[in-house]
Write a structure and sequence with these properties.
heterodimer; A: 326 residues; 3 domains; 4-stranded antiparallel sheet; B: 665 residues; alpha+beta; elongated
């Protein structure tokens, strides 16, 4: 899917006006808590640019028809005008009754796009066509069959770590003829966690394990762990002949994989850098350690996360990095 | 919310846009000069091939060159851009050329909208019943085109084609249902929308196509051309009595001036007003004429018109001349007095004009007429003799008379002896003048088809006719139809029936009669729709008792209606919708809310996530001295809410209403 997300538009007049209106709507309506159904007072309808142009054309046609008292031309104009008027209702109905079930976002690293998923479901009232979603620009478009659900994907660039509040977005439709747009502002209460950007040239992972790193794993390995009684199935090459000769019993060598050093990712080990650089180096380390499936612990001035590994450990570490001092 | 500005057309919408354009062009293509048709179609064909072969738009410079070439062809064909046909042809050509660069949604919308505009312009040329089909076809295809364009635009944000699994039937159903829903309101608007009594700007005079009809000159062959044309000239519905078919002489242009080859309208007769008009009270025939546009200024009436329609003058020779060419269907009420005596006394200037013969033409006729003059005792004898001459000699009434050269009357009378009504009228009039009897040529229509179902007379262009009038001292101008002397059946049965030959391949009697019968629908359509005007509208309003509404009051009334209906729409509809969309709040929940508000006043902070008992437990902790009461209320609420039994509501209401807390502050 090709999605173009343009940078946030600057403060143009229309944007300022839109923001004002949005603010008023928001004050009146308050943020939404899903599930949330679009009803009459949430939906606005206005002509599109094309709609205005079409209206002007109709006015000219009506003037000509009235001037020449050309009744068939007038019938055409009146029919078109009525159809255009009718499409306002159709556009409104296309949106009204749509239910927003939930909005959520996976955490991302700073600099990546935050992906907000808006889950929407349609009841059995009517089919819906070409419903767009987007912040200022439309980013996604979906049809809804009867009793169906789907999700819109909305993207937003991230610039700083921490919580990114999802800005208000609109659901919009210009169905059926594109003459009118019906839209609804939605003020979600969803936020996206933005991790610090991992440093590109991070120093190598520190190998400063501190005892709690657990035992080495026994089994096949390069280093000798000890002896044990021979068991059928042990490789003949592993038989410790000398020891066996001494004890009249067969012993085989037990091997082990050497214990990995647990890394200790310590804030204080990064002296002389500013806060954000340190955070991004720590982030890079967490990512690297997780990638190598090492166990690691994270020590920040205000928190210390004990050694661990796995997805939930990683999220915990990254979250405390993201929210450090926020 | 913006979509991608670069949104491109997909194939489906392109095809529908092209369809709309072609459909809306059809009537214009048919009536364009033939060589312009391929020029117009070429860009359309190119665009279609480009769609399937994925061609790129051609460079700007070539588009400009193509436009310049096409416009040059158009201008040289029409000799300029004046006139409606030329202007609309220009529009068609430009729209077609626009397709060369129509690859974006924006352009496609412009093309489709202008296709509808083009559809509107076509009604300047015809408002016949077939145009109903045209209007429906244009609307349907444009609605579908707009729908697909919208779809294409909406899904362009994904950079992929919209999913479409619709077939032609659902598409047409979509358009048709939109139209059907719009029809009642559209027709109401049609009836009630304020009309203008008089136009703000006029039509160009050459507006219509080289429409056939009687014109301001008569040359041999001019009426003969009309004879091939079966299009209606006008319809007349009589109130009460109707004349015999052979007395249906519809008077049109009257000719006084003959230059040797053609008859011309004289300035004098055209500008002198009638001295003496027939008395409308004594007019025997009363009828309503619904006249097709002619681009000429003559209105038609039976001899002798007693009424002068609006913005029309009656001339000294009883032509009805409108102040502007009739460029659209026009209705007028007319009364005719067949017994009226036209100019028993003729003034000198007119007498001279009615006797004038160009010198140096037709010597043989002049000779014969001077012989007749000598032999005759009275004018009426000469007239009778002339008619007998036509009747007894071997004269033929034919569609294909031989060509005549310089001495047209001589050649016709003595050599060819074959001719059409105009030959007879012209020759007879010249004969009379040469014999010293004032005479003039009258053109118009003779006869008509009486449609028994609609009980009206339909007069077609093929009923065009020419006859003579001679001035007889004492009784004034008298109608003489020399054609009747040669072919009486022309006057009794009509021009087409009086000929043995077929005019063209598909000229069958049954076809003509079927067409005459079906004209009924066209007349009704004309009557109810095409001629609906400000007058008719005020007559409609008079049903409601708004008889004296002028245009200003009408506008005010409309504004009032719009305001009231707007108020209804903006106030009532939201209320209805609100009523429907929001369920009635639950009384128990309202009561509970009241309780929470009372707690909050005392400084207690509640969270929406708290259940009733949880909330109570929290509140008890904070407001210990009311602890038991709070607990009891929460218990009761839980009972009412979840136990499914009733009976505790009254106590709960009472407790909550009496619940009082001193403010903590």
């Amino acid at each position: 899917m090709v999605t173009v997300v343009t940078p946030l538009p600057g403060k143009s007049l229309t944007n300022i006006i839109t923001d004002r209106i949005k603010q008023r709507v928001r004050n009146k309506r308050g943020p939404m808590t899903p599930p949330f159904e679009l009803v009459y007072r949430h939906i606005f309808v206005l002509p599109t640019k094309f709609g205005w142009g079409f209206g002007v054309m109709l006015i000219f046609m009506a003037l000509g028809g009235l001037n020449f008292n050309n009744n068939m031309a007038l019938i055409l104009v009146f029919l078109l005008a009525t159809i255009a008027q009718l499409t306002t209702l159709i556009a409104y109905r296309n949106l009204s009754g749509l239910k927003i079930d939930s909005v959520y976002a996976e955490p991302v690293f700073c600099g990546e796009y935050a992906h907000f998923r808006v889950f929407v479901s349609n009841g059995n009232e009517r089919q819906r066509f070409a419903i767009q979603a987007g912040f200022r620009q439309a980013q996604d478009c979906k049809d809804f069959k009867l009793n169906s659900y789907d999700s819109f994907l909305l993207q937003r660039p991230t610039e700083t770590r921490g919580w990114l509040e999802m800005p208000s977005f609109r659901l919009e439709t210009r169905f059926p003829l594109g003459l009118f747009k019906a839209w609804s502002w939605i003020f979600p209460q969803t936020r996206c966690l933005v991790y610090p950007a991992p440093a590109k040239k991070a120093p190598p992972l520190p190998k400063t394990g501190h005892g709690q790193s657990g035992r080495a794993t026994r089994g096949d390995g390069d280093e000798i762990h000890g002896l044990r009684k021979y068991q059928p199935g042990d490789s003949i090459q592993r038989v410790a002949w000398r020891a066996s000769a001494r004890h009249d019993e067969l012993y085989s060598l037990e091997m082990e994989t050497p214990r990995e050093d647990a890394c200790e990712l310590d804030w204080d080990s990064l002296k002389g850098s500013d806060v954000e650089t340190r955070l991004s180096i720590l982030t890079a380390w967490v990512v690297a350690a997780d990638h190598k499936q090492l166990s690691y612990s994270l020590i920040l001035p205000d928190t210390a996360i004990p050694v661990g590994k796995g997805d939930s450990h990683r999220s915990r570490c990254l979250e405390s990095l993201a929210l450090y001092l926020l | 919310m913006k979509s991608l500005p670069t949104a491109r057309l997909n194939r489906l919408s392109t095809l529908w846009v092209v369809t709309t354009l072609v459909v809306s062009m059809l009537p214009q293509l048919v009536s364009m000069p033939f060589h312009l048709v391929p020029i117009t179609l070429l860009p359309i064909v190119w665009r279609l091939i480009a769609e399937f072969r994925h061609w790129k738009p051609i460079p700007m410079i070539w588009r400009v060159v193509a436009t310049v070439l096409a416009v040059t062809a158009l201008v040289t064909t029409y000799g300029g851009l004046m006139g409606r046909r030329a202007a609309v042809s220009m529009l068609v050509l430009m729209l077609s050329l626009k397709l060369l660069e129509t690859f974006r949604i924006r352009d496609a919308r412009i093309v489709t909208s202008l296709g509808l505009f083009l559809c509107g312009t076509q009604f300047l040329f015809s408002q016949g019943i077939p145009m109903i089909i045209y209007i429906i076809a244009c609307l349907l295809s444009s609605l579908i085109a707009f729908m697909y364009l919208q779809r294409c635009e909406a899904f362009s944000v994904l950079g992929e084609e919209p999913e479409t699994n619709r077939n032609l039937l659902t598409e047409l159903g979509f358009g048709a249902s939109l139209m059907a829903l719009a029809l009642p309101v559209g027709m109401t608007l049609f009836l009630l929308f304020p009309r203008w009594g008089s136009p703000l700007w006029g039509l160009p005079e050459d507006a219509l196509d080289a429409r056939s009809g009687l014109s301001d000159s008569m040359t041999p062959g001019s009426i003969q051309n009309l004879f091939m044309d079966d299009s209606p000239a006008f319809r007349a519905k009589f109130e009460g009595g109707m004349p015999n078919n052979r007395d249906l002489y519809w008077r049109g242009p009257v000719f006084w001036n003959f230059d040797g080859s053609s008859w011309k309208v004289s300035y004098l007769s055209r500008n002198l007003p009638a001295d003496n008009k027939p008395d409308p009270k004594r007019a025997f025939f009363r009828y309503e004429v619904q006249m097709e546009p002619t681009e000429q200024r003559w209105l038609f009436a039976l001899d002798y018109p007693a009424l002068t329609p609006r913005k029309t003058k009656m001339t000294v020779d009883y032509q009805l001349i409108a102040s502007r060419p009739v460029t659209r269907l026009r209705s007028y009420t007319m009364a005719s007095d067949p017994n009226f005596q036209d100019s028993p006394v003729l003034r000198q200037t007119l007498l001279r004009a009615a006797l004038e013969v160009p010198s140096g033409f037709n010597p043989r006729t002049a000779e014969m007429m001077s012989d007749w003059r000598k032999e005759a005792k009275s004018d009426s004898e000469i007239i009778q003799r002339a008619l007998q001459y036509f009747n007894r000699q071997q004269f033929h009434y034919t569609l294909n008379p031989p060509l005549l050269s310089r001495h047209t009357v001589d050649e016709f009378l003595f050599d060819t002896k074959e001719g059409f009504c105009e030959h007879y009228a012209s020759a007879f009039t010249i004969m009379m003048r040469m014999a010293g009897i004032p005479a003039r040529v009258v053109t118009g229509y003779q006869g008509g088809f009486y449609n028994p179902i609609g009980s009206y007379v339909l007069v077609r262009q093929s009923d065009a006719h020419a006859w003579s009038e001679v001035w007889v001292r004492g009784s004034g101008w008298t109608r003489i139809d020399p054609t009747a002397a040669v072919a009486p059946e022309r006057v009794q049965q009509g021009a087409v029936e009086s000929l043995d030959q077929r005019r063209y391949l598909l000229d069958f009697e049954w076809l003509r009669s079927a067409r005459n019968t079906f004209d009924l629908f066209q007349r009704g359509w004309n009557n109810w729709v095409v001629t609906f005007s400000a007058d008719r509208q005020s007559r409609l309003f008079s049903i409601f008792g708004w008889e004296f509404l002028g245009p200003a009051k009408l506008v005010m009334a409309m504004a009032g209606i719009i305001l009231i209906s707007g108020a209804i729409i903006f106030l009532l509809v939201p209320m209805l919708l609100k009523f429907r969309s929001s369920k009635k709040p639950d009384p128990l929940l309202r009561l509970w809310g009241k309780f929470i508000r009372k707690l909050e006043k005392a400084g207690f902070v509640s969270h929406p996530s708290m259940g009733a008992m949880e909330l109570a437990a929290n509140a008890e902790g904070q407001l210990e001295y009311k602890g038991d009461l709070i607990h009891r209320i929460a218990e009761l609420y839980t009972l009412c809410r979840y136990s499914g039994k009733t009976g505790n509501e009254a106590e709960l209401t009472d407790l909550i209403n009496r619940f009082q807390i001193r403010s903590v502050s």
